Amino acid sequence: MDWEPPEGFPRQRPAPTGDFDRAGFHLHEANKLRLQYSEDQTVRARGWHAHAPGQLWQGGGRSRTAQELFGAPERDDPEAPWQYNTRVLGS
């Protein structure tokens, strides 16, 4: 599908115009479900936040990873790279 998680947008995407990007917003929101349910190694989905391992969250003057805050989802192979190549949302 050639998407780059966790941003939630295809790699080839038009540059923003400054107007509200309704289609981009919906793609981003729909990709949260993709992060949560379509990662190749995930056994049991958790909140989409936990499925964005490289995402940094700022608060209280600190930066923390998504997994530090939300926990790590259970995966068949925890050491495998995060990929979204074999599972399709809804299957």
Shape: globular
Order of helices and strands: EEHEEEHE
The low-pLDDT segments are none
Mean pLDDT: 76
Rounded Rg: 14 Å
How many DSSP helices?
Answer: 2
> How many discrete structural domains?
1
For the secondary structure, the number of strands is 6
Helix content: 10-25%
The portion of residues forming beta strands comes to 15-25%
Q: Helix/strand/pairing class, anyone? A: alpha+beta
Measured distance between first and last alpha carbons: 15 Å
The major pleated sheet works out as:
2 strands, antiparallel
Strand order of the largest sheet: 1-2
Write the layout of secondary structure elements.
Blueprint: E1 3-4, E2 9-10, H1 22-37, E3 42-44, E4 56-59, E5 62-65, H2 66-70, E6 74-75
Antiparallel strand pairs: 1-2, 3-6, 4-5
Task: Give structural notes.
- With 91 residues, the protein is of the alpha+beta class.
- The chain has one domain.
- The chain is 23% helix and 19% strand.
- The chain has helices at residues 22-37, 66-70, and strands spanning 3-4, 9-10, 42-44, 56-59, 62-65, 74-75.
- It has a two-stranded antiparallel sheet with strand order 1-2. A two-stranded antiparallel ribbon has the order 3-6. A two-stranded antiparallel ribbon has the order 4-5.
- A hairpin with a 2-residue loop joins β4 and β5.
- The two termini are 15 Å apart.
- The mean pLDDT is 76.
Structural features:
single chain, 91 residues, alpha+beta, two-stranded antiparallel sheet
In short:
With 91 residues, the protein is of the alpha+beta class.
